[in-house]
Amino acid sequence: MDPDSVAKAFVEHYYSTFDANRAGLANLYQEGSMLTFEGQKIQGSQNIVAKLTSLPFQQCKHNITTVDCQPSGSGGMLVFVSGNLQLAGEQHALKFSQMFHLKPTPQGSFYVLNDIFRLNYA
Amino acid sequence: MDPDAVAKAFVDHYYSTFDANRAGLGNLYQEGSMLTFEGQKIQGSQSIVAKLTSLPFQQCKHNITTVDCQPSGAGGMLVFVSGTLQLAGEQHALKFSQMFHLMPTPQGSFYVLNDIFRLNYT
């Protein structure tokens, strides 16, 4: 599978899981995974999922505008996403950018080693 | 030097070089470096500098809003930047996000292995 398709498949899986059931993101992170969410640094799958499931909204929908990817060396892949985030009940969608550093698992899949999320304020 | 300080120093150096003399960015990239600029993929220091020096403006000024960084494993560092780009003569600044994957050089410095740039349209 070519890298762009892998990146696109990951992005679709990540955001559809996020939007349907944030707790389900746990198996995409491992103990050494790092998330920086609007400047707050969090490490490890458990803490990351705790942060994401505690975000102050019930329902949301990510709409992805751009996906760029590059190999990061030693089998890893960098994925750079921009899009908007619609929260239920809010009139205006929030714009965001996010980058993922994916590393291969022995089973032939990927997990997220690095994750950085930022809202893009107008 | 702590990672956040290293990331900030790199960002200051990168954008001040970009704004003063884009050709001077050549020694921050190597042959295997990759740039994706608004979706266009470019590889190698020479091609990357050719792209950046051919961008259709003479003068510009980057103003950085946020800098996030995380270690990428194997001594590398991921740096995620957001800010605005003011082009000379334009009334409104452009918003952008950019990610760098820095790898250490034998001399104790860093070079850019991966670089992805996207404008954030309102």
From TrEMBL, chain A:
<dbReference type="GO" id="GO:0006606">
    <property type="term" value="P:protein import into nucleus"/>
</dbReference>
<dbReference type="InterPro" id="IPR002075">
    <property type="entry name" value="NTF2_dom"/>
</dbReference>
<keyword id="KW-0813">Transport</keyword>
<dbReference type="InterPro" id="IPR045875">
    <property type="entry name" value="NTF2"/>
</dbReference>
<dbReference type="GO" id="GO:0005737">
    <property type="term" value="C:cytoplasm"/>
</dbReference>
<protein>
    <submittedName>
        <fullName>Nuclear transport factor 2</fullName>
    </submittedName>
</protein>
<comment type="function">
    <text>Has a role in nuclear-cytoplasmic transport of proteins and mRNAs.</text>
</comment>
<keyword id="KW-0653">Protein transport</keyword>
<keyword id="KW-0539">Nucleus</keyword>
<dbReference type="GO" id="GO:0051028">
    <property type="term" value="P:mRNA transport"/>
</dbReference>
<dbReference type="InterPro" id="IPR018222">
    <property type="entry name" value="Nuclear_transport_factor_2_euk"/>
</dbReference>
<comment type="function">
    <text>Facilitates protein transport into the nucleus. Interacts with various nucleoporins and with Ran-GDP. Could be part of a multicomponent system of cytosolic factors that assemble at the pore complex during nuclear import.</text>
</comment>
<keyword id="KW-0963">Cytoplasm</keyword>
<dbReference type="Pfam" id="PF02136">
    <property type="entry name" value="NTF2"/>
</dbReference>
<feature type="domain" description="NTF2">
    <location>
        <begin position="6"/>
        <end position="119"/>
    </location>
</feature>
<dbReference type="GO" id="GO:0005635">
    <property type="term" value="C:nuclear envelope"/>
</dbReference>
<dbReference type="InterPro" id="IPR032710">
    <property type="entry name" value="NTF2-like_dom_sf"/>
</dbReference>
<comment type="subunit">
    <text>Interacts with RAN1.</text>
</comment>
TrEMBL record, chain B:
<dbReference type="InterPro" id="IPR045875">
    <property type="entry name" value="NTF2"/>
</dbReference>
<dbReference type="GO" id="GO:0005737">
    <property type="term" value="C:cytoplasm"/>
</dbReference>
<keyword id="KW-0963">Cytoplasm</keyword>
<keyword id="KW-0813">Transport</keyword>
<dbReference type="GO" id="GO:0005635">
    <property type="term" value="C:nuclear envelope"/>
</dbReference>
<dbReference type="GO" id="GO:0051028">
    <property type="term" value="P:mRNA transport"/>
</dbReference>
<comment type="function">
    <text>Facilitates protein transport into the nucleus. Interacts with various nucleoporins and with Ran-GDP. Could be part of a multicomponent system of cytosolic factors that assemble at the pore complex during nuclear import.</text>
</comment>
<protein>
    <submittedName>
        <fullName>Nuclear transport factor 2</fullName>
    </submittedName>
</protein>
<dbReference type="GO" id="GO:0006606">
    <property type="term" value="P:protein import into nucleus"/>
</dbReference>
<dbReference type="Pfam" id="PF02136">
    <property type="entry name" value="NTF2"/>
</dbReference>
<dbReference type="InterPro" id="IPR018222">
    <property type="entry name" value="Nuclear_transport_factor_2_euk"/>
</dbReference>
<feature type="domain" description="NTF2">
    <location>
        <begin position="6"/>
        <end position="119"/>
    </location>
</feature>
<comment type="function">
    <text>Has a role in nuclear-cytoplasmic transport of proteins and mRNAs.</text>
</comment>
<dbReference type="InterPro" id="IPR002075">
    <property type="entry name" value="NTF2_dom"/>
</dbReference>
<comment type="subunit">
    <text>Interacts with RAN1.</text>
</comment>
<keyword id="KW-0653">Protein transport</keyword>
<keyword id="KW-0539">Nucleus</keyword>
<dbReference type="InterPro" id="IPR032710">
    <property type="entry name" value="NTF2-like_dom_sf"/>
</dbReference>
